[in-house]
Design a protein that fits this description.
Blueprint: H1 6-44, H2 49-85, H3 88-94, H4 99-140, H5 145-149, E1 150-157, E2 163-170
Antiparallel strand pairs: 1-2
Helix pairs in contact: 1-2, 1-4, 2-4
């Protein structure tokens, strides 16, 4: 039976608090940077605000996945550094707790973060990023629906080394 000790709960609480706080701060920075990057286009093309907010929400997971390694490292530094600053690490060590035992909850959390990131990156991020690209092209860049679904002069190599030239290709059909 798996029992979580008080020490593990304490270290886990410190780590996850630092992780969530750092991730939230990075998300805020990424949203603000995206707003400043797209602000001129949003105003020029008179994009609907609900579509703009949806664009920001759909594009955020891809950007957050990229900063999770840095966020994890900062969370370790903040949580363990906070424990060391208040001499709690020394108290653990003088009471006979091995340093690897102190690190175990952080390592388990890191494994959970790796698997969670993998699942998000494989199943949710591609769908959300595709939706964000569509919202950006359609509403922020103000391209018409027909320009998004039709392509002109498509040259494709097909089965049996056949080449196909299409003057206009409609992706809906």
């Amino acid at each position: 039976m798996l029992r979580i000790k008080i020490l593990d709960k304490f270290i886990l609480k410190e780590f996850w608090l630092a992780f969530v706080a750092t991730l939230s701060f990075c998300a805020l920075l990424l949203v603000v940077a995206t707003i400043f990057d797209k602000f001129q286009e949003i105003l020029e093309n008179d994009a609907p605000w609900d579509k703009v907010v949806l664009y920001f929400l759909c594009s955020l997971p891809f950007k957050l996945i990229q900063v999770i390694p840095v966020v994890s490292a900062l969370a370790v530094l903040f949580s363990v550094g906070g424990l060391a600053r208040h001499n709690e690490i020394i108290a653990f060590l003088t009471n006979g707790v091995h340093s690897l035992r102190i690190a175990a909850p952080v390592v388990v959390s890191a494994i959970i973060i790796v698997f969670g990131t993998f699942i998000l990156n494989e199943f949710y991020v591609p769908v959300l990023e595709e939706q964000a690209r569509y919202l950006e092209r359609r509403y922020i860049e103000a391209k018409s629906e027909t320009k998004l679904v039709t392509r002109r002069d498509v040259f494709v190599r097909g089965i049996g080394n056949r080449f196909y030239l299409m003057k206009m290709y409609d992706t809906r059909e």
